[in-house]
């Protein structure tokens, strides 16, 4: 028995030694192939993990005699420690190398030229709108918005356009359904405001307007307008004129003169087109004003009594004025934009010529 077990130990020792020798060699050859810390970590899990070969060897010793356990246990333990320390050493070495490499690669070269960052800015139309609104707000107007898609009533009916009146032809309309349309002007806000507020009303309404026009350098199917409406007791034509003059002086930062030409809009009476003295030549005549000396800037007039009535405002007690101006047109005059189409083409070469505000 004794002899037998001796042989067993010898055989056991032999086998375990062979296995651990092979394991050791295999480990070192695999370690040599590791290129980075994560590969080393994988190796650690593979050899020293719960399901690894070292653990298997340990388990196989359980059935051995105390003597076997002593001899072979030490053998396996030595191998385990050798692998663990070798892994620790290699990982530390590689980590250092990786950090060194990172420091080298991520070094900031302060001599490189800076990269230009792209600063966004307001679209010139938005910037012009904001500037106009700011001046009008300073003058006591508050801002109201109306819908782009509206009914025939608010765009035309409430504004005293008779159903078959040719004045509708002045504004070629995009109809969506028989009584629903894209507003042709921001005047659609007038009746809405009167429905919701009692006078005094002093508002400006900015927004888009749409007309089925041929697209040219000077007209487009969509554009922006700002409507003004002031209703109170005793509002007069003189109030309208002085307000517009003050406004355009502020907007163009110039001592302009106002000129009014009678014109027809069904919702104002009297109605007019307003010109300002040419910003470029001051009425001497130039290409900007087409040698007329004047630049057309807006439509305006005193609110028609019918419109007041439609808004449930008594024309015997109240009067008011309204004006409507095109934003693109103002930009054309103020910034010398020669073609209105440029404003909706989103070409950065064009847009970047405007001040970043
Ligand atoms: N809504 C008119 C237009 O677009 C302009 C206007 C507004 C005229 C207010 C008079 C009063 O042509």
Helices and strands, with pairings:
Elements: H1 2-33, H2 37-48, H3 53-61, H4 66-105, H5 124-138, E1 142-143, E2 149-151, H6 152-155, E3 175-177, E4 180-182, H7 189-196, E5 201-210, E6 222-232, H8 237-252, E7 258-262, E8 268-277, E9 294-303, H9 305-310, E10 319-326, H10 327-335, H11 348-351
Parallel strand pairs: 1-5
Antiparallel strand pairs: 2-4, 3-4, 5-6, 6-10, 7-8, 8-9, 9-10
Helix pairs in contact: 1-4, 2-4, 3-4, 5-10
Bound molecules: phenylalanine.
Residues 185, 187, 227, 265, 268, 271, 299-301, 322-324 line the site of phenylalanine (PHE).
Overview of this protein structure:
This protein has 357 residues and is of the alpha+beta class. The protein is 43% helix and 18% strand. It contains eleven helices and ten strands. It has helices at 2-33, 37-48, 53-61, 66-105, 124-138, 152-155, 189-196, 237-252, 305-310, 327-335, 348-351; strands at residues 142-143, 149-151, 175-177, 180-182, 201-210, 222-232, 258-262, 268-277, 294-303, 319-326. The protein has a seven-stranded mixed β-sheet with strand order 1-5-6-10-9-8-7, with helices on both faces. Strands 2-4-3 form a three-stranded antiparallel β-sheet. Helix 2 (37-48) runs antiparallel to helix 4 (66-105) and helix 3 runs antiparallel to helix 4 (66-105). It is elongated and about 120 Å long. The N and C termini lie far apart (100 Å). The model is unreliable at 1-8 (pLDDT under 50). Phenylalanine binds at residues 185, 187, 227, 265, 268, 271, 299-301, 322-324. Phenylalanine (PHE) binds at residues 185, 187, 227, 265, 268, 271, 299-301, 322-324.
């Amino acid at each position: 028995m004794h002899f037998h077990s001796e042989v067993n130990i010898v055989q056991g020792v032999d086998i375990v030694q062979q296995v651990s020798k092979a394991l050791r060699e295999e480990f070192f050859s695999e370690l040599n192939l590791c290129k980075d810390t994560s590969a080393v970590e994988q190796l650690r899990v593979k050899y020293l993990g719960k399901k690894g070969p070292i653990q298997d060897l340990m388990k196989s010793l359980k059935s051995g005699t105390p003597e076997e356990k002593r001899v072979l246990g030490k053998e396996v333990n030595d191998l385990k420690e050798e692998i663990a320390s070798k892994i620790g050493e290699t990982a530390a070495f590689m980590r250092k190398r990786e950090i060194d490499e990172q420091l080298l690669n991520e070094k900031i070269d302060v001599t490189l030229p800076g990269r230009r960052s792209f600063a966004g800015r307001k679209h010139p139309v938005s910037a012009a709108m904001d500037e106009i609104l700011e001046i009008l707000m300073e003058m006591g107007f508050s801002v109201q918005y109306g819908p782009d898609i509206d009914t025939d009533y608010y765009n035309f009916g409430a504004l005293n356009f008779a159903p078959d009146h040719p004045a509708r032809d002045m504004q070629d309309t995009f109809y969506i359904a028989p009584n629903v349309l894209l507003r042709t002007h921001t005047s659609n806000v007038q009746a809405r405001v009167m429905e919701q507020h009692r006078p005094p009303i002093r508002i400006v309404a900015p927004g888009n307007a749409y007309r089925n026009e041929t697209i040219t350098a000077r007209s487009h199917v969509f554009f922006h307008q700002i409507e003004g409406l002031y209703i109170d007791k005793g509002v007069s034509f003189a109030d309208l004129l002085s307000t517009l003059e003050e406004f355009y002086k502020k907007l163009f930062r110039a001592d302009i003169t106002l000129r009014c030409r009678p014109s027809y809009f069904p919702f104002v009476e009297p109605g007019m087109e307003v010109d300002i003295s040419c910003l470029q030549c001051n009425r001497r005549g130039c290409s900007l004003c087409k040698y007329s000396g004047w630049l057309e800037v807006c439509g305006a007039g005193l609110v028609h009594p019918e419109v007041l009535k439609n808004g449930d405002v008594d024309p015997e007690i109240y009067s008011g004025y309204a004006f409507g101006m095109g934003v693109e047109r103002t930009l054309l005059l103020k910034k010398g934009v020669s073609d209105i189409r440029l404003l909706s083409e989103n070409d950065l070469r064009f847009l970047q010529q405007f001040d970043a505000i």
